[in-house]
Amino acid sequence: MSEKERNEIFNKIVTGLHQSNEAMLRAKKARGEKVCYSSPDGKPYTITARTALKKFLSQS
């Protein structure tokens, strides 16, 4: 497998993960749910899916 092929596969995986994460956040937002994340020090916290989606889309 060439480097170009590896990069193409990697890019497809990243794109798929991005799309699935966005779809999950949109579905949770529609149901008014929260999502759980972990802070850099490892402590879990929750935020609304609405807030998480806004943050996700602004980083994309």
Largest sheet: 2 strands, antiparallel
Distance between the termini: 29 Å
Name the shape in a single word.
Answer: elongated
Helical content band: 55-70%
Binned strand content: 15-25%
- SSE order, as H and E? HEEH
Number of strands: 2
Stretches with pLDDT under 50, minimum 5 residues: none
- Please give the count of helices: 2
Q: Pairing-aware structural class of the strands and helices?
A: alpha+beta
Quaternary status: single chain
Strand arrangement within the widest β-sheet reads 1-2
Mean pLDDT: 96
* Gyration radius, in Å: 15 Å
Question: What topology emerges from the helices and strands here?
Answer:
Layout lengths: L2 H28 L3 E5 L5 E5 H11 L1
Antiparallel strand pairs: 1-2
Helix pairs in contact: 1-2
